[in-house]
Specification:
The structure holds two protein chains of two kinds. Chain A is of the alpha+beta class. Chain A has one domain. In chain A, strand 4 and strand 5 form a beta hairpin. The N terminus of chain A is likely disordered. By secondary structure, chain B is of the alpha+beta class. Chain B has one domain. Chain B has three helices and eight strands. A six-stranded antiparallel beta sheet of chain B has the order 6-7-4-1-5-8. In chain B, strands 2-3 form a two-stranded antiparallel sheet. Chain B starts with 17 loop residues before the first strand and ends in a 5-residue tail after the last strand. In chain B, 36% of the residues are buried. The mean pLDDT of chain B is 94. The chains are: A alpha+beta, B alpha+beta. Chains A and B meet through strand 4, strand 5, strand 6 and strand 7 of A and helix 3 of B.
Chain lengths: 184, 129
C-alpha cells in the first residue's frame, strides 16, 4: 500500500524506479502535509522526474526523484549509500539481511524533509535488518535518522554538553529534526 | 513446539567481562582521521558476541575472533554496560557455534547503541588515516 499517492504537490521525492511513493502507512499523521504547512520553502510542484542510478557491487540500483534538480546533499548521500550498501545475506559477517532499496528510498525522503538549504550531508550506514540510518557527528554531538525494517522511521539526538538526549518517531518531529540538522 | 521461555541473563558472565563484536569497514565512522563503530553495530536484536573470559579460559587470543574475517575489526563492550539497559547476556556455545559465543538479547534502542559506541574499546582497530 502506498501513502499519499495521487497528490502531486505532496508526492514524496524519492522512489524506487517505477514507484511513486515511499512512506509506510503510519497512524494519525501526515508528515508531508505537515511540511507543506511549515512553509519551509522546499516544497514546490514537482513536474520533472530524474532517474538516479547507483552502482552497487557492480549492479545498477535505480531510484527516481520527482523534481528537476537533485537537492544539494544528494550527491554525497548517494555516494555514501552506494559505498556502504549491505550486499547479500550476511554482509556484516553475521546474519544481516541485504540492504533494502525500499528502505533506502524511505530514508532519502526523510532527508528530503529535514535537511535545510545548505544543511550538512549525513553518512549513511546499513542496518543488519535491511534498513539504513543517516548519521551526523560533530565532536560528541550526534544525530541519527533510522529507517529499520520492523518499525516506522525514528530519530536519535544526543548533545553531551547540554545533557540533552532524545529519541522518538520521525513522524512526530520533522521540524525539530530539521533544527537538529542545522547544528551540524 | 519451540521453547518460548525468555532467555535469562547469565550471571556467570561477570559485569567486567568483555563482549567482542566484529565490525565491517562499511560500519565505521571516521572523524578527524579517527575511526569508531557506527551505532548500527549494536542494534541487532540477537547481538552475537564472543565472551572474552571464555576465550581466555580456552587459551585463545582475543584477536583470533578475526581468523575467518581478516578484513574486519574487533571491538569490545562490557557486560555490565549492557545490563544497565536491561539486556540479558547469555552463552550460546552449543556446536556448531563458537565455544565462546554469546548473545546480547532484546530490542535495542538507539540510546543503548550510542551508549555502547561511547564506551566501546577497540581490540583490533582500523589504522587511523
Amino acid at each position: 500500500m502506498l501513502a499519499f499517492a495521487g497528490h502531486l504537490d505532496t508526492t514524496p521525492a524519492f522512489a524506487r524506479r517505477e514507484e511513486s511513493a515511499w512512506v509506510r502507512p503510519q497512524s494519525g499523521s501526515d508528515v508531508l502535509a505537515r511540511r507543506e504547512r511549515s512553509n519551509t520553502g522546499s516544497l514546490r510542484p514537482r513536474k520533472e522526474t530524474l532517474d538516479v542510478v547507483l552502482s552497487v557491487d557492480g549492479q545498477a540500483v535505480r531510484f527516481s526523484y520527482r523534481g528537476d534538480e537533485l537537492p544539494h546533499w544528494a550527491k554525497a548521500v548517494l555516494t555514501s549509500v552506494a559505498d556502504r550498501w549491505g550486499c547479500g545475506s550476511g554482509w556484516d559477517g553475521y546474519n544481516a539481511r541485504p540492504t533494502s532499496q525500499a528502505l533506502v528510498a524511505e530514508l532519502l525522503n526523510c532527508l528530503d524533509l529535514t535537511i535545510p538549504p545548505g544543511g550538512a550531508s549525513p553518512i549513511v550506514t546499513p542496518l543488519s535488518d535491511g534498513g539504513v540510518q543517516a548519521e551526523w557527528h560533530k565532536g560528541d554531538l550526534t544525530l541519527e535518522i533510522v529507517v529499520s525494517a520492523d518499525e516506522p522511521a525514528r530519530f536519535y539526538f544526543h548533545d553531551p554538553a547540554s545533557g540533552r538526549e532524545e529519541e522518538g518517531h520521525f513522524e512526530e518531529a520533522p521540524e525539530r529534526i530539521r533544527d537538529f540538522v542545522g547544528l551540524f | 513446539m519451540a521453547d518460548q521461555r525468555p532467555e535469562e541473563d547469565d550471571q556467570s558472565i561477570l559485569d567486567g567481562d568483555r563482549l567482542l563484536r566484529r565490525v565491517r569497514r562499511n560500519q565505521l565512522i571516521w572523524e578527524d582521521g579517527v575511526p569508531r563503530p557506527s551505532s548500527v553495530v549494536f542494534k541487532t536484536f540477537r547481538l552475537s558476541v564472543n565472551i572474552a573470559s571464555l576465550m581466555v579460559a580456552q587459551g585463545r587470543a582475543l584477536d583470533s575472533t578475526l581468523k575467518e574475517h581478516p578484513e574486519e575489526f574487533l571491538t569490545a563492550i562490557l557486560a555490565g554496560d549492557v545490563r544497565k539497559f536491561g539486556h540479558p547476556v547469555v552463552k550460546d556455545v552449543e556446536p556448531p557455534n563458537d565455544p565462546a559465543h554469546g548473545l546480547v538479547l532484546g530490542k535495542k534502542r538507539d540510546g543503548f547503541a550510542n551508549a555502547m559506541v561511547r564506551s566501546q574499546q577497540w581490540i583490533v582497530a582500523p589504522a587511523a588515516e
